[in-house]
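Tokens for chain A. Residues wanted.
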């Protein structure tokens, strides 16, 4: 049994120490000490979604709890990396602080730096060494929800005047017909569905609407409108 000190207020450093104790190969928790980045990958996503739900509910108590769960996930992954000797929790904190300072020269830099900031994405691409549209598109995380990722890809492409061609009602009708005419469950149907969803995403982006949020709201309206007893 580990006799960890009882404190009135615990800190982020305590969190890292507690996780290290749970991960101890000999005396740690049977579950915690065998986890890997891949085994808890989905946990990270689930905790992030739960935090977003708390934000949407504007529930401060729930938000505090869920943000803590997200922080725990960050510390857990950092602890695993420290065990392997690749980086530490301190490296994570140092890196994000340096990034915030470097990306805000108008706050932390000189007056000349402040006057030079016109494009945040350009600043980020310069920092990451991205020089082509392919580099920019490749940096969009594949783990993002597909609808959100499609909108981000299109937005980045638009900066290079390479966004998909604007579509109209007739184009949407043709894409919908292509899907309806394809054999159910076929690769042809899947491709047609992908084209239709990608086109609708671009249409909403051009209307300055976030397609992910728009669909989320429609999902909620659908749930509220279906109250049949089962």
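Reply:
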């Amino acid at each position: 049994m580990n006799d960890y000190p009882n404190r009135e207020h615990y800190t982020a450093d305590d969190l890292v120490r507690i996780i290290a104790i749970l991960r101890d190969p000999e005396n740690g928790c049977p579950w915690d000490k065998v986890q890997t980045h891949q085994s808890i990958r989905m946990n990270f996503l689930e905790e992030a979604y739960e935090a977003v739900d708390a934000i949407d509910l504007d529930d401060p108590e729930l938000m505090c709890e869920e943000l803590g769960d997200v922080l725990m996930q960050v510390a857990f992954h950092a602890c695993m990396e420290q065990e392997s000797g690749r980086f530490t929790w301190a490296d994570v904190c140092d890196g994000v602080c340096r990034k915030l300072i470097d990306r805000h020269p108008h706050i932390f830099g000189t007056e000349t730096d402040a006057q030079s900031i016109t494009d945040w994405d350009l600043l980020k691409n310069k920092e990451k060494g991205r020089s082509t549209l392919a580099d920019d598109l490749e940096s969009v995380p594949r783990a993002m929800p597909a609808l959100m990722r499609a909108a981000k890809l299109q937005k980045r492409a638009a900066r290079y005047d390479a966004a998909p061609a604007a579509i109209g009602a007739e184009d949407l009708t043709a894409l919908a017909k292509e899907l309806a005419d394809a054999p159910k469950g076929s690769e042809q149907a899947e491709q047609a569905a992908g084209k239709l969803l990608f086109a609708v995403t671009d249409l909403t982006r051009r209307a300055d609407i976030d397609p992910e949020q728009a669909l989320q709201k429609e999902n909620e309206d659908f749930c509220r409108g279906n109250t049949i007893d089962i």
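The chain has a mean pLDDT of 89. Residues 186 and 192 are 10 Å apart (CA to CA).
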